[in-house]
């Protein structure tokens, strides 16, 4: 059996893996503060300086509840970054239908086909994202352009491990109606709120390293052919590698922050001044200084440590993680190199991502392409912080781009396409080996 083979790891490999201590997930950015503080407070290596003061000032901008004075609306998903990213972690897998309990999930929408530059075709009077709420007399009410509020229905998918253990997965079915547009003309992509860990360090992973990991023709024959998503940087118009978002839609942390302000809250900035929902030339509602502070807040926050790395079960799980080739996409080690910020350079980090797009098969696919990303391609999600986010978010965790997975095991079992071989190797493991691998993931 495969599980027997995996237990008989060569001594040389075992020695290499067990001496590769990843406790300092973020290098000198690693924080040993309690979970919530670890990813909010300035990293311990950040000296007392105006930069540290700006990072700390970002907390209030990130976690405030915005209103008309801050530019909220006219339509939006929620009123603040921290209302979706609870404690800088994940949000609820929930859609609001009444305006009384704003959800934290978003729905990317577009007309079928792509524009000449590869971008999705915006829905008339809607844009690229469904914004189900509007502000009326200090109350959240439904956006009337959304004729039927979005709803998720879950259906079950049963399965069984080779050893007889049964499992049951769930998949979402999204329903909504937009006034004046036939449902058949709309493609949609459901997204949950991700945790925000090590964002500045992800931006500092060298482009040359990302391209070295890419293997579009699968020349090494391992069935994995990760590719970058090239997207236009809004400030310069140049095509760059997308690093942020489930499909790598934005190349910089600044742009990702501005996009979230605009599409999630309706707050304009110099990067997203309106795009048809507001008149170009309006004074940006998010000032340049606040956008800079919001970006610095995320870029220079601490990264939590990997815990219990001396535990035998965790160590065994780390070996198995590499043996079944999860690490082929979830890259464990990289050294950063930031083009403008020395503090973000030269760090040996363990983010567990290659920032590349991978075809994850038809079960995880939707019909909404984005630039070079097809509907079945998703950026490799970083795994650092997995074990901390339940405490940070103060809620049961959900996984994958649409929150369908209720456990780490379910997330693994949904892997298809380029992840199918690793998924199948996981299924072949013994129960104790599966438990060890999950223990390793929870240690991150």
The biggest sheet amounts to:
4 strands, antiparallel
- Helix content estimate: 25-40%
- Number of domains as seen in the coordinates: 1
| Low-pLDDT ranges | 1-19
N-end to C-end Cα span: 29 Å
- What is the tally of beta strands? 17
Question: Which structural class matches the secondary elements?
Answer: alpha+beta
So what's the overall shape? globular
Tally of alpha and pi helices: 14
User: What is the radius of gyration?
Assistant: 22 Å
The overall pLDDT average reads 90
Which range does the strand content fall in?
15-25%
What does this structure look like?
- This protein has 444 residues and is an alpha+beta fold.
- It has one domain (2-443).
- Helices cover 27% and strands 17% of the residues.
- The protein has helices at 2-7, 11-18, 35-38, 50-63, 81-84, 199-203, 207-213, 253-265, 288-299, 312-323, 389-393, 408-413, 420-428, 431-443, and strands at residues 30-31, 75-76, 106-114, 120-121, 129-130, 133-136, 139-142, 146-160, 166-178, 186-191, 230-232, 239-241, 303-304, 334-335, 348-349, 357-359, 377-379.
- Strands 3, 4, 5 and 10 form a 4-stranded antiparallel sheet that branches. The chain has a 3-stranded antiparallel sheet with strand order 2-6-7. A two-stranded parallel sheet has the order 1-13.
- α8 (253-265) packs across α9 and α10 crosses α14.
- The longest helix is centred in the first third of the chain and has 14 residues, at 50-63.
- The chain is globular, with a radius of gyration of 22 Å.
- The relative contact order is 0.18.
- Mean pLDDT is 90; it is low at 1-19.
């Amino acid at each position: 059996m495969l599980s027997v083979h995996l237990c008989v790891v060569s001594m040389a490999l075992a020695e290499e893996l067990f001496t590769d201590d990843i406790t300092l997930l973020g290098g000198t950015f690693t924080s040993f503060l309690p979970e919530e503080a670890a990813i909010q407070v300035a990293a311990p290596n950040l000296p007392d300086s105006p930069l540290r003061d700006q990072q700390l000032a970002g907390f209030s901008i990130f976690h405030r509840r915005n209103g008309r004075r801050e530019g909220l609306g006219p339509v939006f998903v929620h009123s603040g970054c921290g209302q979706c990213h609870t404690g800088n972690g994940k949000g609820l897998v929930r859609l609001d239908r009444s305006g009384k309990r704003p959800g934290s999930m978003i729905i990317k929408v577009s007309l079928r086909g792509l524009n000449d530059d590869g971008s999705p075709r915006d829905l008339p009077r809607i844009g690229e994202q469904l914004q189900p709420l509007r502000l009326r007399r200090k109350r959240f009410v439904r956006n009337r352009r959304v004729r039927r509020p979005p709803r998720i229905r879950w259906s079950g998918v049963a399965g069984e491990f080779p050893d007889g253990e049964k499992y049951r997965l769930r998949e979402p079915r999204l329903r909504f109606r937009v006034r004046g547009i036939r449902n058949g003309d709309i493609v949609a992509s459901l997204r949950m709120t991700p945790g925000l860990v090590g964002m500045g360090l992800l931006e500092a992973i060298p482009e040359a390293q990302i391209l070295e990991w890419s293997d579009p023709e699968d020349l090494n024959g391992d069935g994995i052919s990760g590719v970058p998503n090239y997207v236009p940087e809004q400030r310069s118009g140049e095509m760059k590698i997308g690093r942020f978002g489930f499909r790598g839609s934005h190349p910089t942390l600044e742009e990702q922050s501005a996009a979230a302000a605009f599409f999630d809250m309706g707050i304009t900035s110099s990067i997203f001044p309106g795009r048809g929902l507001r008149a170009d030339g309006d004074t940006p509602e998010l000032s340049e200084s606040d956008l800079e502070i919001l970006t610095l807040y995320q870029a220079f926050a601490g990264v939590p440590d990997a815990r219990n790395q001396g535990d035998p079960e965790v160590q065994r799980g780390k070996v198995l993680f590499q043996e079944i080739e999860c690490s082929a996409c979830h890259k464990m080690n990289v050294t950063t190199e930031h083009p403008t910020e020395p503090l973000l350079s030269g760090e040996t980090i363990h983010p567990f991502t290659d920032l590349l797009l991978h075809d994850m098969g038809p079960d995880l696919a939707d019909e909404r392409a984005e630039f070079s990303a097809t509907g079945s391609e998703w950026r490799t999600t970083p795994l650092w912080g997995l074990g901390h986010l339940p405490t940070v978010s103060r809620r049961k965790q959900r996984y994958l781009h649409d929150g369908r997975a209720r456990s780490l095991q379910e997330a693994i079992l949904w892997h298809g396409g380029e992840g199918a071989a690793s998924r199948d190797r996981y299924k072949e493991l013994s129960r104790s080996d599966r438990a060890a691998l999950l223990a390793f993931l929870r240690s991150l």
